[in-house]
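Worked example

This section walks through a single chain of length 219. The input is the sequence exactly as stored; nothing has been trimmed or padded.
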Amino acid sequence: MASWLPVIARLDPAIGYIAYDRPGYGRSAPLPSSDGARDSRSAAGLLHDLLAVVGASGPYVLVGHSLGGLYIAKFAESYRSEVAGLVFVDSRPPLFRQACDAEDVQFCSTEGATPPPANWPAHILQESAGLNASEEMAPSAAALERLPATVITSTSVWPGEQGAEGFALWLRTQREFARTFSDHRFVRAERSGHAVHRERPELVAREIEALLRRISERP
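Given that input, the structure is written out below as C-alpha cells.
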C-alpha cells in the first residue's frame, strides 16, 4: 500500500480511493501456509471481501501493478457489474510466458524460469506458485473488451543475458493485451523501470484521472 502513496498524493482530492496490502504485505497478516498457491481467483475474492467489509460502493476503477494486473483482470471477470474501468501499470500480460516459450527466451519460459529462493517470505512464494495458474485462468478478450482500460508500460530495457529479448516480448504482449479492449489507451512511461508507480507517480495519477473522465463521458 505504501508504494502507492506518491500516486495518491497527486490525485485530485475529490477522487475517492482505497489502497490495501494483500495478505503478508505491510501490516496485513499472511494467509496460512496450508493455503498453498495464491492465484488470481483467490486474490480477486479477497479484494471483493475487503471492499464489502469496508462498505465501499462500486463500480470501481481498479489499478494493478505487475502481477496485480492479472488480479484486477480476474476481479473484473468475476464481478463484472462492479467494475467501471481498469488501469494496468506495467502489468504482467496474460500471454507473456507463452511468448517466452515461443521465442525461446529461457529465463521467462515455462521450462527455464528460475524458481524463487526458498527463503523468500511465504506470501511471495504463495503468489509465485500461483503465477502460472493466474496466467492460464486470465479472462478472455470477450469477457473484458467493453471495459475502458489504460495500459501503462515501462521503457527501461532489462539487464542481463536475453534481457533485451525478454523486454521486447514484455512490451509486445502488453500492447497486444491493450488491443483486446475496444476502448483502450496505451501509454509508455518514459525513463521508467518496472516500478512505474514509484518512478513516475505523476504519470500514473494523470492516467487514472484521464480514465475517470473517459468513463464519465461515455454515453
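What to look for: Strands lie at 60-65, 83-89, 149-153, 184-188.
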